[in-house]
Amino acid sequence: MDSLKAHPAEKKVLGTLMQSPGLLAQVAVTQDDFVDSRHRAIFKEMKEREANGQECDAVSMCDTLMNRDSEVGGVVYLSTLIDHAGISATLDSEVRQIRERKDAIELSHKLKVLGSQLTKSQSSAFQASGELLGLARTIRDHGSKSLGDSLYALDDMFDAEADGTRQVYMKTGISDWDNNSNFQGISTEGITLILGASGMGKTTFLNRLCLGLLSQGRSVYLHGSETSVQRRLRDLTMAHSGTNSREWATLTRGLSELKEMGEWDIAVANEIEMIRQRLRESQDWLSTKNLVVTGSGYCVEQVVATATNLHQRGKLDCVIVDYLQDIGDSTGAGVRVGDRVSQVSHKSNSLKEMSAQLQIACIVGAQVSGEKDGPGSNPKPQLWQTMWSASAHQDCEEAYALYVDDYYATRFPDWVPKGRPGTMEIIARKRRTGKLSTLEVPFIGELKWCGGPLADRPANLDIPRIGAGQ
After folding, report:
1. According to CATH, what is the number of the domain 2-138?
2. Model pLDDT, residue 143
3. Element of type H or E holding 453
4. Which residue from 20, 253, 407, 422 puts its CA 20 to 30 A from 147's CA?
5. Most confident range, picked from 156-160, 219-223, 391-395, 434-438
6. Are the C-beta atoms of residues 82 and 58 closer than 8 Å to each other?
7. How far apart are the C-alpha atoms of 132 and 23, rounded to whole Å?
8. Longest C-alpha distance within the chain, in Å?
9. What is the pLDDT of residue 334?
10. What top-level class would CATH report for the domain 169-244+271-469?
11. Rounded distance, CA 450 to CA 424, Å?
């Protein structure tokens, strides 16, 4: 059992409580839940000091226990616990880990004793089965809260919403979206599913959401399953600066070819330098934001682990995944490699659990099937068209389908328009509350941009405002 003692969850709980002693009255853990005897002694002292109205911070605890080295591991060990301090939002999760681990250790010990008794014929199979049933009844479900605990947490949530410290919907930085009474913003909890056909603008839209959230001061983790980190940052920089990436490639290649021939075009060189300056400004803007980007190759467990680490450090408000079906396959128990339906369901469920545990927004792009067969009579994506998934639309809190009529108008000569040119339709397909509706925002394909300007976009860009909510 000694190898199990120094569990990080025990250290983190004690460190967090010494950093924020006010949480002692709220934390649902007792000294008997700690496996490490040092931690039991430290927690017992903290509770006694709290009951007597004394300070329980790290300095006070070190002063109090400085002569009890053998019991608490010494002042040096005690002072290092503060380095493991987490944040209050994850305290319940860490307490649950402590209590579940204590139950697991005790159950393992009892099973070993029972197995030894059976081996030595000190107990019959019938007696052993009865003891096993008794053991099963003693195991607690630490993941479930009592009705009182749940109502207490709900009361805190309503208070936070009433005083403005918590929002049901957070602003996206897309003014038409944020100011529309049916949309208001992105749900701060659960998965928001963004559906779209290949090439319809999912990545453009998700990048736009990322930039908009960053402009609102949010901390964002963006995982791009199709691209490298460098490519994603390039796309974000190009979009923020209002640069046409194809035009940039044409200009820079043209100037390079002229240089090879010993020639020079001052007008082209000046235009390139002007664009380059805008790109520098956008790079500088991004460098000041709380943004973490990961690229292709990650499985969903790695995405969840990255998000959890960021959240524990207090540096995460929202996770954006582009896109669901392209996240790397998992190899864990119960998930078959090559089974696309099983894999996508596993990815969706893992992201849903992550969002619930961390209590953060998770925006997930998802491919819809059928676009290779042509647009059909109704090309606007439906929930049931989510590729390789029968559960993603059930896992999400809200779902929006993207539709850009220009996508089909430029590909099919006989296309009969079903939407306005230069617009992206954001169609609400699922909401827990409120009516389903459609929002139209500006869409500029060559600039990889949608949704009107950011407040700090380059002033030379003239992006029209549509703002037509239906």
Report:
1. 1.10.860.10
2. 62
3. none
4. 20
5. 219-223
6. yes
7. 37
8. 97
9. 60
10. alpha beta
11. 7
